[in-house]
Amino acid sequence: MGESSSSYRGPWFCRVMNRADQLILSIPDDAASKLWGVDKGPTNVMIHTEDGRVFNVFLSASKGKLFFFHGWSNVVEHLGLTKGCLVVFNHVDPTTFKLTNFVDGVIPQCILPKSYDYSSNDVTSTVMIDNKTFNVSIVTSDGKVGFTLGMDVIVSLFQLEVGCYLLFTKGFGIFFYLKVFRKNGVEISYPDVDVDEAEVAPVDAENEVEEHIHGGVSRFVRMAGEDYFRIPDPVSRMAKLDEALKDLTIRFLHLDPPLQITNGTRRERRSNGRGFRYALTSWKKFMKAARIKVRDQVHYSFDENEQVLSVERVVPYVRRSN
Questions:
Q1: Can you give the pTM of this predicted structure?
Q2: Which distant-in-sequence residues (6+ apart) come within 8 Å of 52 by Cβ?
Q3: Could you state, in order of their start, the residue ranges of all structural domains in the chain?
Q4: What integer is the mean pLDDT of 46-74?
């Protein structure tokens, strides 16, 4: 399912087929309008299958919608498409599609376990959507493999709901390409997303302290993620977590009155297998106690002498209006 070498870029779309789709298949309205304009469309298109066959398929219009009609049944018969199959259309040029199909029951699924063994040989993969890359952890639990930390960033960014489609294709090593489809089957491309660029380090940034103050106090800023908080490497060394995991004293100085709690720590094996990185446990409880929400800008400090991690200030995330 490689990208076209052409500069043309039309939206992909997909559909899980029902019985009626074996005779006539509807093109999503959003896709049709982006491809050809409102109430417009070619008379026919060419559909290329992955085995090298090319089919001439005519379009039909009814009640403002466009359908693959005459010739589509030939594609269905050739590929053996039935109810439950997933068909993915890559719009190569204005009158050409590349079709990839997945047989019912063979559609890959990713099951995310509710608990993770972070002491196992977990790895961090690179997931690319268009030309934007994300770091996403891959973990194993009970013999299953799943994408975990980092997927929350993608789900939040694209505002995904139940019923959306995530289509992964494997690149080299642990590099993956991802196509994201709304519930209507139309691809969401990264340029279409209303993105507020973070002015602070994202949750998956390499952990270096932005500011170091004499007297053993380090300050840093992070954008709050949904599922975890990694401790910056220099802070981990100051806390001597490499010697032994321990509970940290946490002070929420931004609250009135300030609140103090203790919070556990855990370790994660680095993606290159050399050494560990460290994170807080029970992050959701931490967020609730600190009144932090996802994508808030959080200002931290760590006092090496007192061995205290403090939240000094929280800047709420505000989505810019158009």
A1: 0.52
A2: none
A3: 13-102, 123-190, 211-315
A4: 92
